[in-house]
Write a structure and sequence with these properties.
37% of the residues lie in helices and 28% in strands. It has 10 helices and 11 strands. Bound molecules: iron/sulfur cluster (SF4) (2 copies).
């Protein structure tokens, strides 16, 4: 079983649409993982059934037992993050602001403060309308530790792929080069980078490939919307050649690509034969299996 992660140095490149297209083409050979937990939207294209869900806890948050609290005000005075508030002599913790340092619990003279596990999001295992398994998650508003949640999504996807004897895990990684992307790349066998021909597209492609090289993972690249800037497309192609990165294909900007998103379907199902994407999937399988 091989794990393929689709990433992009920036948002808006069409990464999720292309990952969903690969999920369609995998036709039951893959478990799909949505690792873009900060802005998960694979479910909009694959209509999962959310059949199994679990709470995801990360870090701790302070809680004040108002029956025990004597309203001395010490915790509010000492909290460096201004997370404790007083309303009508009653003290409470703002969970968004609380950093979970535990100092207030240590200094409360009547032990009215406890540190509780913080609910940071939800984790789901679904069957999609394409009849493949999707592992996905949603981080709560203001919650941190998305890298930890990504690691959980990936681990579960790998376990299910092995259990179901699938050939691949296809993961939609997060945009950028931060902690969630690093988690997405950890343990991956192959990376597909989706870029677009713009100055920022080129800049972010280079940054994300530097990161991929540090993990020593084979990588390939799709240039999406290549026809909106042919000059920059040529520059990206030259860069890929000189860096020995497999160039999978150039995809033109078409109305059917964008309208698939609004219809909630993959680009493969939107009336236009996406031969280039089919060919890209063939090359990915050939390349990954030759390593
Ligand atoms: S330190 Fe303890 S007793 Fe004092 S206000 Fe805070 S919770 Fe209440
Ligand atoms: S745990 Fe730390 S951050 Fe949270 S309320 Fe207590 S002192 Fe403030």
């Amino acid at each position: 079983m091989k794990e393929i992660v689709v990433i992009s140095g920036k948002g808006g490149t069409g990464k999720t649409s292309l990952t969903a297209a690969l999920a369609y083409l995998a036709d039951g050979e893959a478990v799909i993982a949505d690792c873009d937990v900060d802005a998960a939207d694979m479910h909009l294209l694959l209509s999962p059934d959310f059949s199994h869900d679990e709470d995801f806890y990360s870090g701790e948050v302070a809680h004040i037992d108002t029956d025990l609290c004597t309203s001395c005000g010490l915790c509010m005075e000492k909290c460096r993050f201004s997370a404790i508030h007083r309303v009508n002599e009653e003290y409470s913790v703002n969970e968004i602001d609380c950093e979970g340092c535990g100092y207030c619990a240590r200094i409360c003279p009547v032990n009215a403060i406890t540190m509780n596990d913080q609910l940071a999001g939800k984790f789901y295992i679904s069957t999609t309308r394409l009849d493949n398994t999707l592992v996905h998650a949603r981080l709560g508003a203001g919650a941190e530790n998305s890298g930890k949640l990504v690691a959980k999504v990936k681990k579960k996807a790998r376990t299910l792929a092995e259990k179901e004897s699938k050939d691949y895990v296809i993961a939609d990684g997060s945009p950028g080069i931060g902690c969630p992307v690093i988690s997405s790349l950890s343990g991956a066998d192959y990376v597909v980078v989706v870029t677009e021909p713009s100055v920022s597209g080129m800049h972010d492609l280079k940054r994300v490939l530097e990161l991929v090289h540090k993990f020593d993972i084979p990588a390939s690249c799709i240039i999406n919307k290549h026809d909106i800037n042919p000059g920059m497309t040529n520059e990206i192609e030259d860069f890929l050649r000189s860096s020995n990165i497999l160039h999978l294909c150039n995809i033109p900007y078409t109305a059917s690509f964008t309208s698939a998103i609004t219809k909630g379907i993959t680009i493969m199902e939107n009336g236009e034969d996406q031969m280039l994407v089919r060919e890209a999937w063939r090359k990915i399988k050939e390349d990954i299996n030759s390593k």
